[in-house]
Amino acid sequence: MAANNVRHAFFSALITLIISYPILGLNLEAQGISVTLTGADTSTVIAIFIAVIVVFVFQLFRERLMDRVRELPFLSARAHKEPMAENKRAKIESWVITGIVVLALFWPFFVSRGAVDLATLVLIYIMLALGLNVVVGLAGLLDLGYVAFYAVGAYTFALLAQYADFSFWMALPVGACLAALFGLVLGFPVLRLRGDYLAIVTLGFGEIIRILLNNWTTLTGGPNGIGGIPDPTLFGMEFGRRVKGEGNTSFHDTFGIAYSGEHKVIFLYLIALVLAVFTAMVIRRFMRMPVGRAWEALREDEIAARSLGLSRTAVKLSAFTIGAFFAGFSGTVFASKQGFISPESFVFLESAIVLAIVVLGGMGSQIGVILAAIAVTILPELAREFSEYRMLIFGAAMVLMMVWRPQGLMPMRRIHIELNRQE
Amino acid sequence: MLEVQNLSMRFGGLLAVDQVSLDVQEREIVSIIGPNGAGKTTVFNCMSGFYRPTGGKILFQGKEIQGKPDYKISRLGMVRTFQHVRLFNSMTVVENLLVAQHRHLNTNLIAGLLKTPNYREREKKSLERARYWLERVGLIDLANRESGNLAYGQQRRLEIARCMVTEPRLLMLDEPAAGLNPAETKDLNQLIVSLKEDYNVSVVLIEHDMSLVMDISDRINVINQGRPLASGKPEEIRNNDDVIKAYLGEA
């Protein structure tokens, strides 16, 4: 046992050294036209070796340490607590959620513009992740090209605004429905595929959309993107300093307040908040409906589901379509927030991030997915100084999650339908 | 109501089922027996649409159904169970029954989102039907448990209840007694007979438990190596020399 520990600790330390030394301990320096490899400062090298020793010692005494940690009073108290009754917990949960939403409504008026902007982005990711959660978490279809539907929504709004003078509110349903249509169209050929094969085909579809947007320069402007996308209006009131649309008034004039750029940011945030809450509620409702049960049944056992008269085609297509619908939704909001979109916003990495959010949050779990969306979007912003190591940290977080909580932050607790006994 | 004529199923060079014919009348229990690997389950898979038979006809209530997709056949009223229980394990017992009533429910998305009266009415009805069948198979106390946590015998009964809530005309049971103890087998025996007597369902049964088969079958079809060997009433089969040979080997 002890010898095993030493060996394990030794290998862990060795791996730490192998990974960290080339990344942190070596520098590439440009001298004229040639690039030379130089060692890092002595302090960095010392830091690396300290880290290696720490890993070695920790691994050596890990079991004893973990036992100690488990004995800590506040942890053991939690472990022995009785789980709350299901309906009591549901009630508390719904109150907490309502409270958070109300808080979120007033919060932007007290914080900086940058924070509100970031929060809007978080809400967009929440919508995306909730939509993907339907496809991946509930229906069990691994979709790696989800960003394509997001792009469809965003480009629909941008193009309609440019060529047909659509406003945000007109484009929102159109963008979402068009994305849903794309989901339906993609769904047909991939119905027979499962698991890895499905993932590859959807990945390809995502790339097709991006490359199409990139190369169809006459329509989409190619890599230059589309700019001048209008901001949303509130009953015909614009938030810009000067009114652009015909027949519109400006927000600050109507209410007789001084113009401030913050109004627009806060308004966008509120729109995103309302849409995100709408998304969450609709999907939550779907989960309790026959269609939600059908998604889960098909994920659990396709053959049994079919033997009971569930059409694989209809069930899978509905999941794809509804997932795509909400991606189109968030795409429209995104286009309006940025005011400018280009294919660069819709690369594969975006799909991967949204998928990571779903997996981190816990497949099928709405609250988990929302928490993960907040974490994944905000953490990189907070850790701007370490931006070079962003992907490294991201990867490490994923690995740690898989080791300690493979079921995600908040694993899915199914919304049960209870059968009450009649006496 | 069901007629299988000269059914054949070929997998490449292997002729798994060769010219098998059988028929089932209203309110009748027909068994298919035969040694392991005789092709019984393959016949089932052809009948329920999991396989597309390579030859022959299957008529259900006068209509040809061979080669139709499985979910359409089940919607016509031919529902099956599986040799290895196939439940939706992470769903509760009652939810398993609700999934099965998918086509009785209002599946209109908008109606569901708005909770229209019609939608609520149907949802309530399907819960009632689920409650009825859970009481019928004695699982009502376990209604809110995850079905994966049930004991094996209970899972078997749940699978039958799940078929019954779809209101089938013909029930196909693939080795329903496998893995059950004698007491459970006896309960199953009574349940199957009652399905026929009280709910007017015809049953096609694949089974190895001879006491069960002989007890409840109206007629028995014996298959050996994919070919029909004999068919008739239980006592005829019991005394059939060919059948005895196939089961026990030649003396």
TrEMBL record, chain A:
Pfam family, one: DUF3382
GO MF assignments: branched-chain amino acid transmembrane transporter activity
Keyword list, A-Z: Cell membrane, Membrane, Transmembrane, Transmembrane helix
GO cellular component: plasma membrane
Domain High-affinity branched-chain amino acid transport system permease LivHM N-terminal: start-end pairs: 5-107
Transmembrane parts of this sequence: 7-24, 44-61, 92-110, 122-142, 147-164, 170-190, 197-213, 265-283, 314-334, 346-379, 391-407
UniProt membrane topology term: Multi-pass membrane protein
Location relative to the cell: Cell inner membrane
NCBIfam families registered for this protein in UniProt: PRK11301.1 (NF008450)
Annotated PANTHER family: HIGH-AFFINITY BRANCHED-CHAIN AMINO ACID TRANSPORT SYSTEM PERMEASE, HIGH-AFFINITY BRANCHED-CHAIN AMINO ACID TRANSPORT SYSTEM PERMEASE PROTEIN LIVM
Protein name: Leucine/isoleucine/valine transporter permease subunit
Organism, as annotated: Marinobacter santoriniensis NKSG1
Gene: livM
Automatic annotation (TrEMBL), chain B:
Presence of the UniProt keyword Transport in the record: yes
GO BP terms, alphabetized: D-alanine transmembrane transport; L-alanine transport; L-isoleucine import across plasma membrane; L-valine import across plasma membrane
GO cellular component terms attached to this protein's record: plasma membrane
Transport found in the keyword field: yes
SMART domains on file: AAA (SM00382)
Gene3D superfamilies in the record: P-loop containing nucleotide triphosphate hydrolases
Residue ranges of every copy of the ABC transporter domain listed in the record: 2-250
GO MF term list: ATP binding; ATP hydrolysis activity; L-isoleucine transmembrane transporter activity; L-phenylalanine transmembrane transporter activity; L-valine transmembrane transporter activity
Keyword set, alphabetical order: Amino-acid transport, ATP-binding, Nucleotide-binding, Transport
Family to which this protein belongs: Belongs to the ABC transporter superfamily.
Designated name of the protein: Leucine/isoleucine/valine transporter ATP-binding subunit
